[in-house]
Amino acid sequence: MVAIRIDExxxxxxxxxALAKLSLEVEQEEFVTLLGPSGCGKTTLLKLxxxxxDPTEGTIHINGKDVTRTPPEARDTALCFQSYALFPHLxxxxxxxxxxxxxxxxxHDRKARVxxxxxxxxxxxxxxxxxxxxxxxxxxxxxxxxxLVMRPSVIxxxxxxxxxxxxxxxxxxxxxxxxxKEYGLTAIYVTHDQNEALAMSDRVVVLNGGRVEQIxxxxxxxxxxxxxxxxxxxxxxxxxxxxxQGEVQPGLWRVETAMGTYDVATSTPxxxxxxxxxWRPESAVLGDAGHTGKVINRAFQGHFTDLMIETKGxxxxxxxxxxxxxxxxxxxxxxxxxxxxxxxxxx
Amino acid sequence: xxxxxxxxxLMISLLVICTLWLVVPFTMAVLWSLVDPxxxxxxxxxxxxxxxxxxxxxxxxxxxxxxxxxxxxxxxxSAAVLCLLLAAPTAFALGRxxxxxxxxxxxxxxxxxxxxxxxxxxxxxxxxxxxxxxGWRFGAILFAHAVLFLxxxxxxxxxxxxxxxxxxxxxARDLGASHWARFRVAYLPALKPxxxxxxxxVFIQSIEEFAIAFIVGSPSxxxxxxxxxxxxxxxxxxxxxAVLSLILVVPNVILMLVLEWLLKSANPTLSSGKG
Lengths: 347, 275
What we know:
GO molecular function, one term (chain A): ATP binding
Protein name (chain A): ABC transporter ATP-binding protein
Number of helices of chain B: 13
Structural class of chain A: alpha+beta
Shape of chain A: elongated
Pfam family, one (chain A): ABC_tran
Keywords (chain A): ATP-binding, Cell membrane, Membrane, Nucleotide-binding, Translocase, Transport
Distance between the termini of chain B: 44 Å
Number of strands of chain A: 20
Largest interface: A-B, 27 and 23 residues
Family (chain A): Belongs to the ABC transporter superfamily.
Helix content of chain B: over 70%
Oligomer: heterodimer
Radius of gyration of chain B: 24 Å
CATH topology of chain B: MetI-like fold
CATH superfamily of chain B: MetI-like
Number of strands of chain B: 0
């Protein structure tokens, strides 16, 4: 069942279009991440879903109900703020109880809900403390708890990990995902960190300049990016412009690039002659076959070695697990046809 | 001379200056208020030759001190509250909204403080008379005080409104809070110190204000300053003036202490967030 349906949503700030005709459906209990660089419209979209902004055009339905013009206090969404936004003069318990109090939930139910959340987030020892007596991670958990006690249809996260240090970030990330599954929540999560998006999400919406670049599972985004932007933004990628020569075998297309000719295995034939060709640095095979290139930089990274290689004046990146190539060496590189990805040319 | 010796000398001079500045006038006022009318305190005597509470009892029984006290202490808190209510919308706009000319507007709000208070008082009084606004003299003074001391209240409350964090308002809203609940949980904690400070300043200004209270109020309304000025002015009796000024000072000091304590209880780190 669809939890959130967004149709042709547009938001303009005077002349600036923050979001252009965005459509998205989020399933019940799905974890969807909005990913993109700053200014891509991801926070605008979150604010539109939570009700803090009114769309210029388009509609939003939550559980089949049109909430496009419903104010945030009447929406069945709960937002976890980037800065936590805990009420500083209230204790942890009072912070957690604030929402249920507003909804006039009976004292008995309120206590049950708060105790349940405190249990799940191990906040019991902190209940009578003030927010400024807590660590960043604990504040983050209170903020999550305050959203959870609302038992919302949709829980929204606005870069919740950006104020935590790297080690804590992994821990809280796992915790957020666990809680989301335990409560069976539909979640929308905003981040600019691709690792976070890949690790947590059922599906990722990649946004760029107020438009959707691609909506897909993390695996599909990595292995089959559709545009040059997605290929670049998710992981490392080598992208070259090329021209399609023709189908050499069924499902195998020959593409001419500045570096040489490649055969690409693809089930969907290219629509146009001019394409972008993309491959991941780790899919190159260093060996006897393929193009020759000169190693211009070598960086040992532990479980792999990062090489910058130049062929016919074009430089690209290769990651290899076992190579003894040194700077200045000439190597042979081949890329398996199924590891090559054809991208749509975008204007 | 060593450093510590210099420090000591500086410390002692500071104490001496403070004593001269604060304690001597206060002691003089106390002594003058205790002079018994039977024997005058002439310049050749260090202490008054005869001391009694005669002046205190006399002033309490035979002057308009009681009604002046009542008027002043009814006027000042009312003016403070009214002033706060009048200042709140402007301060809200200046503190919460971004609009072109905001900084200019902020400065303009402070401008009335540059003009000598006596001048604004005289002109404001004449406005009140011209509008026929003087039927209820107490009300006219109250209104005048509330309006004239607006710059203080607006300035203080503007800063307080700027301290309110938008995400607290948004969080309260997201959790389903009504307007009133949002005000209580997001605005009030940040505004509290400013509200106390504004109330205190307007209260003290109103208690001490002479010009308007005199022009608009006399002769039917007597406040402590008008009584004091008349004791100092036409029938100048120094012991009576001493009694009056002491009465004027003591409650203010107590009030100051109470409000300081209240301000401390409104912990600023609690309103500013992470602390």
